[in-house]
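Objective 1.3, modelling of assemblies. Example input:
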Amino acid sequence: MMEFIARFLIGGFVVSCFAILGDMLQPKSFAGLTSAAPSIALATISLTVAKSGRLYAATEARSMILGAAAFLVYAWIVCTILMRRKWFVVATAYLALGIWLICALALQFLILG
Amino acid sequence: MRFAFEPSALRRTGWQEYTSRFVFGGIVTVVAGLIADRFGAGIGGLFLAFPAIFPASASLIQKHEKERKERAGESGTRRGRAAAGVDAAGAAIGSTGLAVFAAIVWTLLPRFPLARTLAIGIVCWGATAVLAWIVHRKTSRFLRRRFAAKHPPPVTADSESIRRNG
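Predicted structure (tokens):
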């Protein structure tokens, strides 16, 4: 239980820090770089190393490369929809997370098996 | 436009918005840990690159831009959507840095201490993201200029008058 509380607090803190950094940066496309910050990785890798060791965390990082590729697809699709269609921003950003998930899992099974 | 650092922009964000980002970030981190426990490092690792910041940031940017336009007496819906779209373009560019961070942790973590690996990773993330942003900006400007040179706008009586008289 303590591990989950630690994960929640550290994750919330790191995500908030990068989000605040993004709020302070201009122009908007430059601020968008912080939306792709490795916030969850920074929050969890130290806990993973303490619990399961450095090799396990390195294996997670290998899959994270594919997760980042899925992030690129997700952000590009959201950008295209918001620029060309009159869709709601919140609905588009949250519903497109399904595209991230499908893309990440597909890459994982195709490349790493 | 060059990049700038504006701490005063933080005053536009309410405490509810900070709280919602904190809670969303915390929940995503816990869920990523649970998935890694249940399905192993392969699937769990994917969630280290989950878009945890973008959805909340995009809705916030849209809200702020909309409010700004409406204060000026105009409808801000379209402007807010476009601003969120530009933020998404930045996130797509920044994902290159995310991949570099992951590659560095994957290769260095088995050999180097955790703190040093994370420090190198975060520096490389920032450098890659900023470099990719600069390259994208310069390339798109160059392509726009070439397109404009090849396809000049049609000369009308109004445009000719503006060109001559300013």
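DSSP finds six helices and one strand in chain A.
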